[in-house]
Write a structure and sequence with these properties.
Layout: E1 9-26, E2 31-44, E3 49-54, H1 67-82, H2 90-100, H3 105-123, H4 127-130, E4 138-140, E5 142-145, H5 150-164, E6 168-172, H6 178-194, E7 200-204, H7 211-223, E8 228-230, H8 238-247, E9 252-254, H9 261-270, E10 275-278, H10 286-298, E11 302-305, H11 312-323, H12 336-339, E12 350-352, E13 355-357, H13 370-376
The chain binds [(2S)-5-oxo-2,5-dihydrofuran-2-yl]acetic acid and magnesium ion (MG).
Length: 379
């Protein structure tokens, strides 16, 4: 039985891991060959440790933070706010972060998750129980392909259908000429249709197209059978997003547009999207993600369990969130660990039949593999 004295945050440690990807992942402006992850460990006085990941999709191109900036922010500014406090003051600690560090939500998310993990472990319950409890035990999975040539994309889709039962695929766009990019996706859609495979295709432009480019090419993608457009245009242009949402007849998902609960409210008020991508990282952790999902859900928008390509701990955290949050009605893309060449936990998340399942056990339900962690630690 843990006492109050056991819940004191004694020490916060960070280390940078560089984990190679099994293949390069091409985004709109950058191609990643490894995923840098800031592993944050929160040590409690009773001997329990919780883990969180500071992670962005590939690098600072997405939202301005990187694993390196997060290390400075956590070590120098956020750790002093945590140390000496009780871990069951989590909401108060998160509030106090705001007095010391503005924005930097990915860094705060790593701390939020490590504290949730540590606190849940002291109670011997899964993190899901701290987030409201069970809504589901598994969630549908969309697999994301980077920007890939046609044949490689077809091979990867076929392989994932056969080995994991995946039926939903996200294709990254926004790199290079939009006309060529659109033809690449339309050919892939036609190829899959002709092979008789029933798969859903969606695209993510990562905010790279302007209004006219989107108005020109999204209808062609709609004709090709693309079923969802993720963030085609810049994050703050909510009028443009609303226009696309209402004009083209294919659901639009807001991703870069929603990095806080206030952003979720702005998207709701502007009627700018049909679906909101909830990355627990970009929102600053599990507590803030709950607020954003509640706002979107109250307006009747669907929420998607999105990813920053987290490793095992970060993905498990997003999975606990998705499994405790009724508003996540639009499935997930929590496939991050499978993009890594190797994992660094002793057990792996269970992916099959088109879903990913919540692990059992206290906290996040995963344990660190220290040999692997040492191996991947940046020197
Ligand atoms: C994003 O913007 O959604 C998620 C999957 C992927 O390939 O990129 C990320 C980031
Ligand atoms: Mg996105």
């Amino acid at each position: 039985m843990n006492t109050d004295a056991d819940l004191r945050i004694e020490r916060v440690e960070t280390r940078l891991l560089d984990i190679p990807l099994f293949r390069p992942h091409g985004f709109a402006t950058y191609t990643a060959t490894a995923q840098p992850i800031l592993l944050v460990s929160v040590h409690l006085s009773g001997g329990v440790t919780g883990y969180g990941e500071g992670v962005v999709p590939g690098g600072p191109w997405w939202g301005g933070e990187s694993a390196e900036t997060m290390q400075v922010i956590v070590e120098r500014y956020l750790a002093p706010v945590m140390v000496g406090r009780q871990v069951n003051e989590l909401a108060g600690i998160m509030q106090d972060f705001e007095a010391v560090v503005a924005n930097m939500r990915f860094a705060k998310a790593a701390c939020d998750v490590a504290m949730h993990d540590a606190w849940a472990r002291t109670l011997d319950v899964p993190v899901r129980d701290l987030l409201g409890g069970r809504v589901r035990d598994e969630i549908d999975l969309t697999w994301a392909l980077g920007v890939l040539p046609l044949e490689e994309a077809v091979a990867e889709i076929t392989e994932r259908m056969e080995t994991m039962g995946t039926r939903s695929f996200k294709l990254k766009m926004g790199a290079g000429d939009p006309d060529r990019d659109t033809r690449r996706i339309a050919s892939l859609a036609a190829r899959l249709r002709n092979s008789g495979e029933e798969v859903g295709l969606r695209i993510d432009v990562n905010a790279r197209w302007d209004r006219l480019t989107a108005l020109r090419y999204l209808p062609r993608l709609a004709d090709a059978g693309v079923e969802l457009f993720e963030q085609p245009t810049p994050a703050h242009e909510l009028d443009t997003l609303r226009e696309l949402t209402t004009r083209i007849g294919v659901p639009v998902m807001a991703d870069e547009s929603v990095c806080s609960p206030a952003d979720a409210l702005a998207v709701v008020q502007a009627k700018a999207a049909d679906v909101v991508a909830i990355k627990t990282t970009k929102l600053g952790g599990l507590l803030e993600s709950k607020k954003a999902a509640a706002i979107a859900g109250a307006a009747g928008l669907a929420c998607h369990g999105a990813t920053s390509l987290e490793g095992p701990f970060g993905t498990a955290a997003s999975l606990h969130f998705a499994c405790a949050t009724p508003e996540i009605t639009f499935g997930s893309e929590l496939f991050g660990p499978l993009l890594l060449k190797e994992s660094y936990t002793t057990e792996q998340l269970d992916y099959s039949d088109g879903v990913v399942r919540l692990p059992e056990g206290p906290g996040l339900g995963l344990e660190p593999d220290w040999d692997k962690i040492e191996h991947f630690t940046r020197q």
